[in-house]
Amino acid sequence: MLWLAAYIGSVLAINYAFSLAPHLDLVWSCWAGLIFILRDMVQVRYGHWSLAAMLVATLLSFLLADPFVATASVTAFAVSELIDWGVFTVTRRPLRDRLWISAALSVPVDTALFFGMLGIWDPTVWAASLASKLAGVSAVWMLMRARSARPATA
How far is CA 1 from the centre of its chain? Predict the structure, then answer.
């Protein structure tokens, strides 16, 4: 339940924050990396029900955030979520690999759709968004890889 609450709360909070202070788009772009990790953990825990979590987060965003920001967010998340879902459904690789592959495919699409719909073309913001999202999932991948490489204790 913790992953679910953290995911929905983060989507809502970032959309609300972006609506209140769009000039801090670089800050919000870095925060977005966490949401991708949370989304993947919700999908691992709840499977296809992760789409329901996305719908709840979207509806709350529409109620509390700027509808223009919420529309860009839901469009980007919907497309990236479908990419993510496809990777998790089709790929039978270890979880850590599915997390990284899904991010490598969905993060650029999410970034382009979100900022493109908002008319934000600043390469610094785009680079920060891409880097934070990929860095976050890469850190999780490395931790999971190191954990699986540890010898079992008797």
Answer: 18
Question: Residue 152 above 70 pLDDT?
Answer: no
Rounded distance between C-alpha atoms, residue 97 and residue 52, angstroms: 24
pLDDT at res. 153: 61
pTM tops 0.90, yes or no: no
Please report the pLDDT score of residue 16 as a whole number: 82
**37 to 12, 41, 52, 63, 112: CA distances (angstroms):** 15, 6, 17, 24, 19
Q: Where are the alpha helices (DSSP H) in 21-153?
A: 25-46, 50-64, 67-90, 95-118, 123-149
Q: Are 78 and 123 spatial neighbours (Cβ–Cβ below 8 Å)? A: no
